[in-house]
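User: two proteins, same treatment. go.

Assistant:
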Amino acid sequence: MDCFTPEQRSKVMSKIRGTNTKDEVRLAKALWHIGYRYRKNNRKVFGTPDLTFTALKIAIFVDGEFFHGKDWETRKKPQSNTEYWIKKIERNMKRDLEVNAYLESHNWKVLRFWSNDIKKNLGACISEIQNTIILRTEMLTKIPPFSE
């Protein structure tokens, strides 16, 4: 059972951010510090990624473990308002797959990181982004040979 009254729970939940979460900001600052420039929460890109490198078509999402269903099959399900939360989290997971499929079908590279991965392994996340930037840059700068 929930340890908060409905009013207290509402207040707690209203403080949860959808954008500019601590881990999203941590990742963005680390990228900015090493010289990468990006767009934040770009509404022109389907799914409104947390960070985008538009010219390279790279979309980066920072997903919270609870709201995006990390280890959903084995994770303990919410004990209060169970029906609502299960429906919401499963819809979030489905939407994530839809966004990935849409962006990939339009030649975007989608990178998704769990919040805890950014907390615990920021360097590995940065390395993956850097490798993707290098690969996408090489792919875009390759000029096909001239043929008649």
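Protein 2:
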Amino acid sequence: MMKNISSTWYFWVFPLFAVLISGYLLYDYFEQRGPEVKIRFEEGSRITPGKTEVRFRGVRVGIVNDIRITDDKKAVEVFARLEKHAAEFANEGTKYWLETPRVSFEEIRGLDTLVEGSYISAVPGDGPKAENFQGRIGTDLKNPLEETALFKLETQRLDSVSDGDTLFYRGMDVGTVTKVSLSKTGQTINVQIRVPWEYARLVRTNTVFWRKAGFQAKLGLFNSFVKMNSVDALLRGGIEFATPTNAGAKAKAGTTFILLGEAPKETEKWNPVLD
């Protein structure tokens, strides 16, 4: 009798162990899951449940788990499950757009979708929790990560600056000249610049702007130098800016600055912390 009981006990150990493991994995699965959001798109031909990811700056923050046609047959509803660490993407104000290849004179973007397949890019909002969102197709929407701030520069004389020229900070491309026009009084020239939001913090109330020369030369007996900047600056010119070490407050969009003809001598010593 004891032998039968002992055999029965061993018989139930393995199923019980399997149930415990399965229960733990199931608990862990639900514990790691974030909220589900519903995104409305005009069409869903490039969206595949279980495959199309939701990404932020190239990092996965969720995945599409279902797609349905709306009751009015005018759009599709995409159901995406977010990662637990990405709960803020279920806040009101979050922007979703389907990333697709874009090729134009100014940019080539989204070509990774040709290899990996389309994905949904997102930028988190800061409002209250929400479940329903309106998505857009990437070719119809400017990437929200590329939203910009516009500033205006004034100068009495404009040399080697025109629409499309590059805005430089420490030699890095951080913006574009979007418009050059004569002021209403005809006394100055207005230059409008566009700075992506991620670089807008670099523009402070005491920031200095100047025209960037592609080729600079100074010849003297004991103090001579020849400097050639980037090919882009050499061919198209541009504008450069810097901020004093004691940086002012962040400049508001629309602020007007004076455009100098050359960089102030002290700019090479400026090294502000701009956060």
